[in-house]
User: Fold these one by one.
Assistant:
Number 1:
Amino acid sequence: MSVSLGISALIFLGIAVRQWLPPMVRIWHIMLAGAIVLLLLGEITPVAAFHAVDWQLIFYLFAVFSIASSLYDTGLSQEIADMLLKRANAGLALLWFVVASAICAAVLTNDAAAVIGVPIAIILSKAFQWRLAVVLVALCAAVTVGSMISPVGNPQNILVVNAANFPNMLATFMIWALVPGVICLVAVFFRFHRLVQKNATDDSMMVSDGVETQAEAVEVSRRQWPALVSVALLVGIIVGDSLGRTYFDLGELPFGWVGLVSCLPIYLAGDERLRVLKEVDWATLVFFVAMFVVTGALYASGSLQYLLGSLQGELDDLTITAVVSFWASQLFSNVPVVELYLKLLDGGSTGTFMMLSTISTVAGNLFIISAASNVIVVQQAEKFGAVSFTFWQFCWWMLPITVFCVVVSYVWIVGLMALGVG
């Protein structure tokens, strides 16, 4: 076993047992420590580490985190929570929470939706006497499933879109991912509706009054329009890019610059630009940068190529794509897995790319480390002083959803390929 593969395994183990580590140790600390160790051991050079990072993706995430932070400052999270609390039926409140989280993920990425959704989950948990850990895991599931239906719903989709260069990325995701996404979202609601009812009377595990107050204590920004303009710009540019590729044969726009342009109104006209900049989820950005360094070292070591063996020439096969992307995501997280898979993949059909996108996305529902949005939910909950969920709680509650979503997505894509759609 190579040093890079061993360090990657230790990172996974460290995150799995983090509940027994000192409270000050965060998930991003573990990933950053792993990257630093690999640099110190010479497994990857500083120059190679810099080039291993997908800076376009980092810029895009910085932009959507800025937009999410600005939207939070406008009181969006509180307004959504208030709207949900007006519904006397707790089941309807949970349904709309799941749907709203999924839509937010499809528009602003699952990572930004996680930032906005955590305070809502805390408020709803107190109001309906739900166990906070269950509501937070429901948020993770909703933003993961919601993100699979959009080309910008999550970082791995962005990587796939850039590699595949779909002529119309919006239409492609509507055809290949919308139906399984909706079916999986229904399954998420029923699964967690049962869980919140089952755990509703466990008072010791509900959110405390102090945490709820902290989640509600938002100093509302005086100007809401810069954040709303940024959202409109982001959606407009992405739609325009898709239409431009389809009807005018225009080249693709770098997603990083799309994001940076979209967040300009916030930093040029917003009255809370410094606070927005401060509240950007820097910890998650560091997590991503460190994660790319770790996977860069792993790729350079040749360990993945050795483990794949003869399968490396069959990576365009739908079943192999599904199996490798799912299980590799459990150890290395879905974003770097997709990036590595795309480097190893020599061509492929639309079905191959969409199988990689959808399966790697729903794979994020099994372990905390499998998707960065899960890490963000944990970090945001801790930021509000709340105890989120353990590694094994997450796995146990998510296991049925994961199996169901993988099967539905796989069957749908294989069926479309059999019909000659791709």
Number 2:
Amino acid sequence: MFDEDKVREEILRRTAEAELLTGHSFYGLRKAIRDDGAIATARRLIDPKGDTKFQMGMRELKKAGLLRLSVEQIIVDFGERGEIFSVDEVEAAKERLAMAELVL
């Protein structure tokens, strides 16, 4: 399985679980993955030069205590196994998760 397929599959699996548990559709995330790909979407979410505000989906995950289902956590999980995402990307994802815990 290619890296793109692995990341897309994992994001969609966790998104489906999050939808069941929160009732939120995560339409924007699904559309971004369709339009730009899973890896590019994940990297854009943690890019400190990009839009740093938290999307509604992240707010819903935090409210429900489900940040473990976030794209940021997927980046951490893959990166810590030495797959796909770099050490810097893992650190950026961890920082974003910590910030979500503080401000949401």
